[in-house]
UniProtKB/TrEMBL annotation:
PROSITE patterns linked: HTH_RRF2_1 (PS01332), HTH_RRF2_2 (PS51197)
GO molecular function: DNA-binding transcription factor activity
Organism name: Fontimonas thermophila
Annotated Pfam families: Rrf2
Record's protein name: Transcriptional regulator, BadM/Rrf2 family
Highest taxon in the source lineage: Bacteria
Phylogenetic lineage: Bacteria, Pseudomonadati, Pseudomonadota, Gammaproteobacteria, Nevskiales
Gene Ontology cellular component list: cytosol
Length: 154
């Protein structure tokens, strides 16, 4: 199964909360309460996101975290990369030379194409889009598509 790590998922949740009120500074404790995540996890993620250049860390009595750049200029790929490093479906897609089969692998080129497509899809979705509520039509289509049995079922 191709799966995002829990920490990358949680980081996206935190970034979305911050983006929804980007004009102010957010404390780790407040974000932990709003997200339902444990404070130590939130602290770890906020530090990683700041190291990744996505958040600014402000010290002092009114300190906390805020976006380092507008939410429209932060992609989901940026968030994942800040936590996990380069996006790669397979090891050879991001770290050439790490596989003994690499020189004779007949699927490597195709995995690289798949990796590029996934990375481009994640780069195309901005934090601003993640923070915005889904349009009513999209919600209705989701309900109709995924919660209704197929027409040919009994």
């Amino acid at each position: 199964m191709l799966k995002l790590s829990k920490l990358a998922d949680y980081a996206t949740v935190l970034m979305t909360l911050i983006a929804r009120d980007a004009a102010r500074v957010h404390s780790g404790l407040e974000l932990a309460e709003r997200s339902g995540l444990p404070s130590p996890t939130v602290a770890k993620l906020l530090k990683a996101l700041a190291r990744g250049g996505l958040l600014q860390s402000l010290r002092g009595a009114h300190g906390g975290y805020r976006l380092a750049r507008p939410a429209e200029r932060i992609s989901v790929a940026d968030i994942i990369a800040a936590l996990e490093g380069p996006i790669g479906v397979t090891e050879c897609a991001t770290h050439p030379g790490g596989c003994t089969l690499e020189s004779a692998c007949s699927t490597r080129a195709n995995w690289r194409l798949i990796n590029i497509a996934i990375r481009q899809a994640l780069e195309a979705v901005t934090l601003a889009q993640m923070a915005a509520p889904p349009p009513a039509r999209a919600r209705a289509e989701f309900v109709l598509t995924f919660h209704r049995p197929p027409a040919d079922s009994p």
